[in-house]
Each structure stands twice: as C-alpha cells, then as structure tokens.
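Recap from last week: sequence in, structure out.
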Amino acid sequence: METQEKKMREINLAELFWQIIFKWRPIICFGILFAVLLCGMKYTMDMRSYRASQNIDTEQLASELTEEERQQVTQANNLSARIREYEDYLESSTCMKIDPYHKPMVELQYYVDSEYTFNYTEESKNDFTSSLMTLYYNYIMSGEMSQNIINEAKLSINQADLSELWGVSQIGNSISIKIICPEKDKMDMVATSIKTHLSSKEAEFQDIGPHKLKLLNESQNIVVDNNLIDRKNTISNNISTMSSQLKALKTNMNSQQLLLLQSEENESKDTEKAGFNLKFMILGGFFGVFLVCFWVVCKMLFTARLQSSDEIRSLYNIRLLGEITVPSKKHHFLSVIDDKLMAIKNRKKKRLSMEQQIKMIATNLSLSCRQQNIDCIYLTGSEYENADTKILSLLKKELSAQNIQLKEGGNIFYDTESLKQSSEIGNILLVEQKGQSIYDEISNELSLAKEQNTRILGAIVLV
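Predicted structure tokens:
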C-alpha cells in the first residue's frame, strides 16, 4: 500500500518551477563554470592543432619538391582560398540570404526642380542643377545616410551589408532609390527615414540655389530578382567547379605535396589561431544550466523526503493543522533576491508571522481537543529530535496557554519509551519537517500508532 501511495504522489509543476528558480545561485555558477570549461577545452584543442601545424617545416618540405610540384601546391592552395572566400560570403552576406523569389523592395523616385530657364534676351544665369544632383547622389550613397537608416529603422545589419542592398540611379533631374529590405515588417520605417533625411537636406541645399525636391513615386513591392538568382547560381557554380579542380589536383599529388598543402592551408585560415569561441561558451553555459535544472527535477521525482505540507493530506490522509515557516539561519549571498522571489511566489497569499502561525495552530488544535474531550496530547515526529527547538518551545508554550497538557518524545518507531508514553496518552500530534521527514518513517509511525489504537490528531509541518 505504501509503495502504491508513493507511485501516485503527484508532482506539483508550479512547485517544481519555483524550486528551479530558487536555485539561481548554482544555475549561475554552473553556467559560468561549464562555459569556461567547454571554451577552455576548445581553446586547448585548437592550440594543440596549431602547435602541431607549426611543427611542420614547410620550407624543408618545399625544398624537397620539384618546381612543377611546388606550382601544383600553390595552385591548389589558391583554389582552396578562393573556395573559402566564396563560402564565407554566401554564409555571411545579408544579400545572399534573401530569397530572390520573394524580395521585399522599397523604391522612391525624386525629381529636382530648379526652375532653371534659358532666355536669349536676358543675361543668362548659371545652371546649378547638375551640382544639386551630384550633392544629392553623394549624400544618398554616403555612410551617413545608410547609418541613419540602420539606426532609425533598427535594422540588424551593418553598413557593409546595406551597401549591397542599396541602389541609386540618376537620369537627368531624377533620382531613383531602390533598397532591398531584409526585414519585411520594417519597409515603412525605411521609407520614412529616407524621406525625412532627404527633406532635411533639401532645406540645407537651398544655399546652392533655390529648388524643390519632389517625390514623384513611392512603392513597396515583393519582387523576383533575376539578377540575384543568376548571381547566386554563378557563385555556386564557381564553388563546384573549383572544388572539382582542387579534387583533381589532390588526386595527382604525392604525400609530401598533400602535407605541404595542408600546412599552408592551416596557416592561411583564421581558425588556426587558438582563441575563445563564443559558440562553445554559450553552449557550455546552457549545458551548465540544464545540468542544475535536471538535478532539481530528478531530486524532486526520486526524493524520499517530504516535499510539501499538502502531502500529509494527500498521501497519508492525516489532518493538516498548519505549517510553520522556519527562519533561515544561513545568510546567503544576495539573500535580498531570495526575499523578492519569495514575495512573488506568495503574492496571492496572506503572509503571517511565525508567532501568528503558531497561535493559529494552537487555537485550531485547542478547539479540536475540546470537541473530543481531550486534555493531554503527545508531541512526536519522525524527525522530532532534529526540529527547531525555538519553534517547539513557542508551540508548547502556546498550547499550554490553551490548557492542553503536553508530553513529547522521539520517533515512536525507534524509541520504546516514546511508544509507551504515546500509547498511554492515546493522542498523538505529529511534527514533521519539509525536506527532512522521510516518507517511509512517517508511514512506519502511522502503522505503529494504528496497531496501538492510538489516535492521530493531525500534523504540523515545519517549512
């Protein structure tokens, strides 16, 4: 029966969540520890690889090869470098990551009206229109304009990325601006930013000559970019072609040529230099956090100790007279955070002081004893001898004030004197402790009390 009760013990997910939250100290410590550990291991491996490559005497290897063999190695090394450049570009370029079949495009078309006219009968004036067009064009293509757009639209790209997405053409007195927006939901913000800055420049450029900057057309579309499609295909084909050429070159190389090629490739790669890898640091941090969370979950699932005061009712069908909060004797680092978390956890509960909790329990027990004509009870518990003496003293004092006679003793399953006294009195009040009292010990107490026909009045849980 006891085994069945344990199997049916329900896991409170909310309590499990808060147990994980209250382990924030080990979570942070283990997260940092494993982040440093995993990153350090990667650093050590990279350092060993780097030192191994440095131990190869490339000059000695090259001197043992013929001129034709050295040229083959140089050609293969150049092909390998170009392949890496193309692959890095495909991986890092924002433009290459955009779907060319669904490309979000913002297009603005402006006209610069200087109201310039030529009259043969009057003195001619200098035409400053071309100067204005040059100023607008240079400003639009400048880093100032692109950086302002990135900041105001909060785009997750840099100026180098935007330069690939930015297109400006000038025909006569008109300027056409086309920009690929990598984030579709920010197309309005990009268009607004462009118009705002060009409007401010219109007022500034009036010093060159009076003119009007007219917005002729504004559009936001999802287009198919055939040029981008061809560009991607060209790069992919180049990688494939050069990879085939490199493979063919390596096939005809001897062991010395391959060793020299590998050494030179390692020297040309940035990854040859040992350094701290952010990816491994983050991965190690997540593993440390997961380890603590897994430990908390396993501890709660497979524990043999009382996890909550409600289990007194649900597992043993005993009346729970109340719980008493035990003040922490340890002064933890940043304990104010624990207090804040506890306040959030108990935000829907009215908090009572320890004295109020004891008084409420004593009153509740006193009323119950009067109804059953009980004037003497026996205090015990599976871990009674390890309970907080200050709390027990306050509890006994309050019960005595309620005209209840008390006797106390250790675990009746192991203490024969306690068993004898509890049987003589016939009424037991259990005092158990969250995280200390063992399920089997509580079950043993209850079974023995039942065999002796001793009444269990209820239980108080110290939390």
